[in-house]
Amino acid sequence: MGRCRDAIIRVVEALRRTGGYVPLSRDNRKHYWLKRLLPVVLVLFLGLVFLLDRVFFPAPMQSFQQRREMMDTWVTITVYDRDPDRATQAMEASFSRMEKIESIASIYDERAEAYALNQQGSLDDPSPELIEIVEAALKTSALSGGAFDVTVEPLLELWRYEPGADRQFWELESAEQQGAISEAMALVGPDRISVTAGPAIVLAPGSKITLGGIAKGYAVDQGLEALREAGIKHGLIDAGGDIGALGGKPDNEPWEIVLRNPNDSADFLVRFGLTDGAIATSGNYERYFDPAAEVGHIMDPRTGFSAHNASSVTVIAPTCTQADALATAVFVLGPVDGIALVKTLEAVEAFVVGYKEPSRLYRSEGLGAFEQSEKGGL
User: How far apart are CA 31 and CA 46, in angstroms?
Assistant: First the structure.
């Protein structure tokens, strides 16, 4: 019996050494499974620790910023995020989206749709973006009684500097100016552009458009949408005064936006706090057609002359497209009529600096909800 037992033991030992199957006792089986399960348990434990660390001790929010020249201005994108790679990719996507809008809405780029529309008088199968811009422009034109009008381009062509001309338009006698303006005015009006089925955009003969008062705001909205799609929850886009906000800053802090004094660049008039939405400012204090700085770049479509009813207009609205177009419309209308228009619109506020009385400031009733008491900046 003893010799048999010893033989069995020797066989088991041989099998163990050669990798064969060895029957395990209950205690050995328990030990075996503990050894097999321990690595799995450790991996699961470490994964749980990592997850809890990310939930209860997330990486700190960081500020990221990029600045590029486009749309005839400087565009700055600021985002807060915990992931540098995601922030960088989001800003790249946002710039790309805005560059696309510029390539569609420019009237100077021969490859742009708006340029082709002016040259041809019509455009078949335009991009959805151009249709949206034109339809938003027509809506604002109707709201403002024609104070905002994208068909104002024939008037702007009169006032622009003409290289080699004996006299510039602003140097002509009043009667000569008025005759040319009357001819150009016949080509201006919201009824001279239409979006038709097909789709197509059609201009009346001789008419041209300029999208400078709305396309930049639309581009900002598109840039913000690109940030959202990339997972960004806190972002700001500033396109030369057309500003769109996404989610405010971390810790529920609003973005701070300072409005400079048009009569004193070293001073500011008011500081706004914006969490979501947009703010846009229009003014004739920086861009003029003439050396004497008397003919501003914002034209009154109703008169054919530069608008001089305000020095500066700032509009806060749900979208930058809306804020951009309304800022121009209110600038043309002036403080009284402009504020009256804003009162009829939901979630829209305005701040207007007078022209004849530049020290006089006009505010819509709900503007106080956005004003900040302390000085600050972006």
Answer: 23
Rounded Cα gap, residues 365 and 356, in angstroms:
23
Q: What is the pLDDT of residues 347-366, one digit of tens each?
A: 999 999 988 776 789 999 99
**Angle at alpha carbon of residue 74, lines to 68 and 80, rounded to 5°:** 65
Containing 264, the helix (H) or strand (E) segment is strand 264-274
Give the residue with greater pLDDT, 66 vs 298.
66
- Beta bridge pairs of residue 244: 237, 278
What SS3 state is found at 124?
strand
Q: Across the chain, which distance is largest between two alpha carbons, in Å?
A: 134
Closest CA to 70 of 106, 91, 99, 105: 99
Instruction: Spell out the domain ranges in the chain.
Output: 2-56, 62-372
361-363 and 349-353 beta bridge pairing = antiparallel
Alpha helix stretches (DSSP H) within the chain: 2-18, 26-56, 84-105, 113-120, 128-143, 153-159, 174-185, 215-229, 320-333, 335-343
The answer to whether 349 touches 370, Cβ cutoff 8 Å, is: yes
Strands 200-203 and 193-196: antiparallel
Q: Which amino acid is at 230?
A: A
- Segment (H or E) for 20: none
Q: Concatenate the DSSP letters of all residues of 306-348 into one string.
A: B--S-SEEEEEESSHHHHHHHHHHHHHH-HHHHHHHHHTSTT-
Helix (H) or strand (E) holding 352: strand 349-353
Residues whose CB is less than 8 angstroms from the CB of residue 99 and which lie 6 or more positions away in sequence, other chains included: 70
Tens of pLDDT, residue by residue over 93-107, are 999 999 999 999 999
Q: pLDDT tens, 156-203? A: 999 998 888 889 888 899 999 999 999 999 999 999 999 999 899 999
62-372 has CATH 3.10.520.10 classification:
yes
Output the pTM of the full model.
0.82
Which token pair is 20? Answer: 């064969």
Cβ burial, residue 328 (10 Å; 0-12/13-18/19+): buried
Q: What is the per-residue pLDDT for 11?
A: 44
